[in-house]
Amino acid sequence: MPESKTSLIAATDLRKTYGKKSNVYEALRGINLSIKPGESMAIVGKSGSGKSTLMHLLAGLDHPSSGKIIWNGQALTDMNEGQLTSLRNTRVGFIFQQFFLQPTLTVMENTYLPLKIAGVSPGKRKQLASEALQAVDLLDKADNRATDLSGGQRQRVAIARALINKPDVIFADEPTGNLDSETGQQVINLLFELQKKHNITLVIVTHDEDLAKRCDQTINIRDGKVVK
Ligand SMILES: Nc1ncnc2c1ncn2[C@@H]1O[C@H](COP(=O)(O)OP(=O)(O)O)[C@@H](O)[C@H]1O
Ligand SMILES: [Mg+2]
To answer: Cα of 52 to ligand 2 centre, how many Å?
Structure first.
């Protein structure tokens, strides 16, 4: 398949079922997609359509019930938990609607948390966190508690945290969902700017049609299926 050569991530007939026996729910019902390196993809659909489920599977955070996900020619479904963790630690950045910053930690500590988890030395992680905070223009807030920041600033910290391991791919799940439209716009502009600069592949789950239009590719999901 020539397509699999050029794609960074390719999914084939991806299915995900939640629950057991009489209580099963088919959240994804046969998804096919292909994302090229450096490309941006929007995953759009109503609440409950399966967007987050799809994102979690593509990022190796959860396992499909059936179907295949190939990253650079390697099947995620063939990897063990250790390999999946390593893939996420070294190649993926995450941004979530709820920011998921630790309230008791400083902005600096929140930013280097993925590196701490990955076992990077204190000196190195501070250096990389400073660079990442510089990139989102928040270095002056490095010693603040994460809770002392505005929503837009918190999401910029989340972007810095997502950038810190120099990922190939950033997955963002409704990154503007908790922001007013102007702040959301600024955060998205920053995200696209950094994506271009570092040639990052970007997968954004969003309700926002305008944001989707700015992406190279849009996947519309309804009831766990891709629709036109
Ligand atoms: N862990 C889970 N257990 C059972 N059902 C789930 C679980 N996660 C999601 N679902 C269901 O799967 C469907 C898709 O959910 P989700 O992927 O979160 O949708 P979206 O992100 O588009 O709002 C929903 O009906 C949701 O209730
Ligand atoms: Mg969701």
So the answer is: 4
